[in-house]
Write a structure and sequence with these properties.
- With about 950 residues, the protein is α/β, with parallel strands linked by helices.
- It folds into 5 domains: about 1-175, 2,3-Dihydroxybiphenyl 1,2-Dioxygenase, domain 1 (Roll), CATH 3.10.180; about 200-360 and about 495-540, Rossmann fold (3-Layer(aba) Sandwich), CATH 3.40.50.450; about 370-485, Phosphofructokinase domain (Rossmann fold), CATH 3.40.50; about 580-730 and about 865-935, Rossmann fold, CATH 3.40.50; about 735-860 and about 950-955, Phosphofructokinase domain (Rossmann fold, 3-Layer(aba) Sandwich), CATH 3.40.50.
- About 40% of the residues lie in helices and about 15% in strands.
- The strands form 7 sheets. It has a 7-stranded mixed β-sheet, with helices on both faces. Strands 21-20-19-22-23-28-29 form a 7-stranded mixed β-sheet, with helices on both faces.
- Strand 14 (about 415), helix 11 (about 425-440) and strand 15 (about 445-450) form a beta-alpha-beta unit.
- The longest helix has 23 residues, at about 305-325.
- The two termini are about 60 Å apart.
- It binds adenosine-5'-triphosphate, 6-O-phosphono-beta-D-fructofuranose (F6P) and magnesium ion (MG).
- Adenosine-5'-triphosphate binds near residues 275, 278, 304, 309 and 352.
């Protein structure tokens, strides 16, 4: 039995049979533009074939016309047919592994070796080979590269493992600051001894307003960076309260050791308060006096909109405060001159995320994490009773938490202060959505109410108001849950620890670089980039949103809000009312869009599929899922149209609901992939995955020449914990993985700290990318991280052991003294975690010992983090928009070869990677990335965007780097 495969792009088809000497018989279908061949197996045996090499005899025969045509064409190209290598295909050796059906299935699902042909067709003479099992399923695939040339192309990356070797010698990447604890202590005592010499600065940090997870990491980074830069570090205890009270009890000098282990601790260890006195000039006057008395030159305030408004006011009043202090003889003229300019800087710490000009505030994502976990829990009980839940979340004047939680948990409805409606309107809209969801089979209803939710007449909307509507009008069994301060509790998520740390370093840099003419900075983050904004301007903009709301000018309030907030809100409305209202687009603009997952599982993958499908529905497009990757498609025609009900709950699930594996189109059979694309008439494709997904997009784009079915807009949403996809600085799944690894490390570190003289060597995933190890080391304060980009040199290893031994010797049983060494698996093949632990223990001479710890696939994470869920939603919507907007650019080329020029920029840019680069979300063409920005052999981008983070991670733990010249 054979499978008919229609012609694609005029490719000639012939059917031939390959059979084993024993029982197994397979049909091999062979495609070539010019040739028709017969293949016949020799020595093949269905039970012994696995992993064995089988010789396939290739006999040229059949279609004489085509044969002649190919010879003529070949002669035209080579001028010498006799020596033509394509003839050597006859009797060529084919690697034909896993030839029985079960094994082929495994192979195609990425669990075993695939079927490969060691013959290399060219782009000019492409060939595909299909092995069909006795019942007609296509189970085998070929590589299709170069039939003519004897020059083999690079062998395909093997499934599952990456073999390219990684240098184990260390290459110094950048000039890292060489600080160790001893030298820093020495510096500190020197500085303290000379008190306030004019050269040295004293930098103080305080936390203010509601506490926020990550504040401790911020304080730690500020204290250590200040010390590392030769400054004295101070903390102001209890927020502005401490400034107003003053004295050494409230304004304390801190040492390197004082902040040990703080990254992993929730709340704020230096205290915070809401201080009435500071709102009055008299309070601020006292604050100014106390700062000067303590000799503080610069103040970094980590707090929310209120705290930074206070800081801004303090800054603007400073000259007059100083004048008054001088006139009342509270300070000397020297002090007046020295402290004439207040050097102040804000790092935004608040769970509310209500400060303009920054995308995220320290603590907001930790709080969102608590909220999403709670709602995930509530879902289960709601589902059991088919109940409705009204969940109140924090956000006095701001709906960010409610909105993001709404997206991350696919809640039915949200009520936020930024977009109020009349009571009648919101009640109608909520009832309409909830009724439709229920009528389509949803058993749960979740409505999230922000603490500050209001109607458009500014009257508050309470959870009880919502309860009343759901229970009385819709007769739903409804409960109210107020999450309260649980949302502010617990330790910070990885994002907040890293954000707080990087912003702390940047804040110290900013105050050291500032002069009387520089405007006071606020340290922000925009997309993936830490930025400096003007404190005055940020406060002004934040206030203008609040003013617009008070003036009931909600349209203006929205315009003044960050564009990302508005984008999230629009996305929430679109995906959550999918299929409800008439689609947005007219019939003739509605498309068929496919989505496929490729590579290892990554957090947020399901959210991307869910968002893509629901957004498609709201636009009027038809979403399709290709189940089980390219191999699923080639083997089982695994295309299903996605329907709303079957995707319920996907938003919050880990793994990949539609299945994923590492097989690329070439490996699966690109001709067959093209055939199905043609059969389903896809107008666009979204691939979600890691490096194999990147390679897949490249293969599809290059195959457009032969297969018009690929002449459609195609987008890759990067998703891999390795974060090694060129074209982006962030891949879905990295945040989930970082949290999983960080949680693991926190536990291990606690064990090490309790044991006192113990270090753990933790084995970290990430292929050839040290991203995960570097960022995790920043989040957990690991003593050392070894990454593939640097390798492990003996010099560095011995230096690290020496530093470790010294610090254990001086630790004298202090708490929080657990030491971690994070080692990327590919940093060294020789130094496995066990070997490394043994070497370290032996070299430590009994001062301490080391053990290995292997988190393994736990690093893929369980539930996806809220960051991965919400980013997935945003990127999926952008990907669909891209497919819509790029139809015109490639539409003509789909039907007409003459219109297709693969090198045309407009056309080639319709196959792109959707990435976050610096502070922008951008589409970059796969051609550009693959040809110019990728180290294919290493499966890495050429430029490592996070390189500078390594120096920061090292310097904050006082690691000495050995400068190895390679
Ligand atoms: N307009 C202002 N002038 C002077 N000080 C202010 C002003 N607004 C706030 N502050 C000071 O900042 C403190 C914290 O402000 P607020 O209570 O608004 O919290 P926040 O910093 O916005 O944090 P969060 O909202 O996350 O809890 C106040 O108690 C007060 O001391
Ligand atoms: O109980 P507290 O400390 O006044 O904090 C409650 C408020 O603080 C915030 O969480 C911000 O930290 C607001 O969303 C909330 O209204
Ligand atoms: Mg606030």
């Amino acid at each position: 039995m054979t499978v008919d495969i229609p012609l694609v792009n005029g490719t000639t088809q012939c059917t031939v049979t390959a059979y084993s000497e024993k029982s197994y018989q397979a049909t091999v279908k062979f495609y070539s533009q010019f040739l028709s061949l017969e293949l016949e197996t020799k020595d093949a045996n269905s039970t012994t074939l696995r992993n064995s090499t089988v010789s396939l005899k290739v006999v040229l025969e059949g279609n004489a016309e085509k044969h002649a045509e190919s010879e003529a064409r070949f002669q035209e190209l080579t001028g010498d047919l006799e020596s033509a290598d394509w003839r050597s295909l006859a009797n060529s050796s084919l690697v034909f592994k896993a030839a029985n059906v079960v094994q082929c299935k495994e192979a195609l699902e990425g669990q075993g070796p695939g079927v490969q042909v060691q013959a290399y067709p060219t782009d000019l003479f492409p060939m595909e080979l299909y092995v069909v099992d006795p019942v007609g399923n296509v189970v085998g695939v070929t590589r299709t590269k170069n039939a003519v040339s004897t020059m083999p192309t690079a062998p395909p990356a093997s499934k599952g493992t990456f073999t390219s070797s990684v240098p184990s010698s260390a290459q110094s990447t950048s000039a890292l600051s060489e600080i160790d604890e001893k030298s820093i202590s020495a510096e500190v005592s020197e500085v303290t001894a000379s008190a306030s010499g004019p050269g040295e600065k004293a930098i103080a940090v305080m936390t203010s307003g509601g506490d926020a997870p990550g504040m401790n990491a911020n304080v730690r980074a500020i204290v250590r960076t200040a010390i590392a830069k030769g400054c004295r570090a101070y903390v102001v205890m209890e927020g502005y309260e401490g400034l107003v009270r003053g004295g050494p009890e409230y304004i304390k000098q801190f040492s390197w050791e004082d902040v040990r282990g703080w990254s992993s601790e929730g709340g704020t260890n230096i205290g915070t308060a809401r201080c009435k006195e500071f709102r009055e000039r008299a309070g601020r006057l006292l604050g100014a006096l106390h700062l000067i008395e303590a000799g503080v030159d610069a103040l970094i305030v980590c707090g929310g909109d209120g705290s930074l408004t206070g800081a801004d006011l303090f800054r603007s009043e400073w000259p007059s405060l100083l004048q008054e202090l001088k006139e009342t003889s509270k300070i000397t003229s020297e002090q007046y001159t020295r402290y004439k300019h207040l050097n102040i800087c804000g790092t935004v710490g608040s769970i509310d995320n209500d400060m303009s000009t920054t995308d995220a505030t320290i603590g907001a994502y930790s709080s969102l994490d608590r909220i999403c976990r709670a709602i995930d829990y509530i879902e289960a009980t709601a589902n059991s009773h088919s109940r409705a839940f009204v969940v109140e979340v924090m956000g006095r004047n701001c709906g960010w938490l409610a909105l993001m939680a709404g997206i991350a948990t696919s809640a039915d409805y949200i009520l936020i202060p930024e977009k109020p409606a009349s009571s009648r309107e919101w009640e109608e809209q909520m009832c309409d959505i909830v009724t439709k969801h229920r009528s389509r089979g949803k058993r749960t209803t979740i409505v999230i109410v922000a603490e500050g939710a209001i109607a458009n007449d500014l009257t508050p909307i309470s959870p009880n108001d919502v309860h009343k509507v759901l229970s009385q009008r819709l007769k739903l069994d409804t409960r109210v849950t107020t999450l309260g301060h649980v949302q502010r509790g617990g330790t910070a998520v990885a994002f907040d620890r890293i954000l707080a740390t990087l912003q702390g370093v940047e804040a110290v840099n900013a105050v050291l670089e500032s002069n009387p003419d520089t405007p006071s900075p606020l340290i922000a983050i925009n997309e993936n980039k830490i930025t400096r904004k003007s404190l005055v301007e940020s406060v002004r903009q934040t206030k203008s949103v609040a003013d617009a709301i008070q003036a009931q000018d909600f349209k203006k309030a929205m315009e003044l809000r960050d564009t990302e907030f508005v984008e999230h809100l629009n996305n929430f409305m679109a995906v959550n009312s999918a299929d409800h209202n008439p689609p947005n687009l007219p019939q003739d603009q509605r498309l068929k869009i496919a989505i496929v997952n490729v590579g290892a599982p990554a957090g947020g993958t399901n959210s991307a599929v869910y968002a893509m499908a629901t957004y498609c529905m709201s636009q009027g497009h038809r979403p399709y899922a290709i189940y089980n990757g390219w191999s699923g498609l080639a083997r089982h025609e695994s295309v299903r149209s996605l329907d709303w009900k079957s995707m319920l709950g996907w938003q919050s699930r880990g793994g990949s609901e539609i299945g994923t594996n590492r097989c690329t189109p070439d490996e699966a059979d690109i001709g067959l992939v093209a055939y199905y694309f043609q059969k389903y008439k896809f107008d666009g494709l979204i691939i979600v995955g890691g490096f194999e997904a990147f390679v897949s997009l490249h293969q599809l784009e290059r195959a457009r020449d032969n297969y018009p079915a690929f002449r459609i807009p195609m987008v890759l949403i990067p998703a891999t914990l390795s974060n090694n996809v060129p074209g982006t600085e962030y891949s879905l799944g990295t945040d989930t993985a970082l949290n999983a690894l960080m949680d693991y490390c926190d536990v291990i570190k606690q064990s090490a700290a309790s044991t006192r003289g113990r270090a753990f060597v933790v084995d970290v995933q990430g292929g050839n990318s040290g991203f995960l190890a570097t960022n995790a080391s920043l989040a957990v304060g690991a003593h050392v991280s070894y990454v593939p980009e640097e390798g492990i040199s003996l010099e560095q290893l011995s230096q690290d052991i020496e530093t470790l031994a010294e610090s254990f010797q001086t630790a004298q049983g202090r708490r929080r003294f657990g030491k971690l060494i994070l080692k990327s698996k590919n940093a060294s093949k020789v130094f496995t975690p066990e070997v490394l632990a043994d070497v370290i223990t032996a070299e430590a001479n009994g001062v301490f010992n080391a053990k290995s710890a292997i988190p393994g696939h736990v690093q893929q994470g369980g539930l996806p983090s809220p960051i991965d869920r919400t980013r997935a939603t945003r990127l999926a919507v952008k990907a669909v928009d891209f497919i819509e907007s790029r139809q015109e650019d490639i539409y003509k080329a789909r039907a007409d070869d003459d219109e297709f020029d693969p090198d045309d920029k407009e056309i080639s840019s319709t196959a792109a990677v959707l990435g976050i680069r610096g502070s922008d979300v951008v589409f970059t063409s796969i051609r550009q990335l693959y040809d110019f920005e990728t180290e294919i052999g290493k499966r890495m981008p050429k430029v490592i965007h996070w390189e500078s983070t390594r120096a920061i991670a090292d310097s904050l733990v006082g690691r000495k780097k050995v400068d190895v010249k390679n």
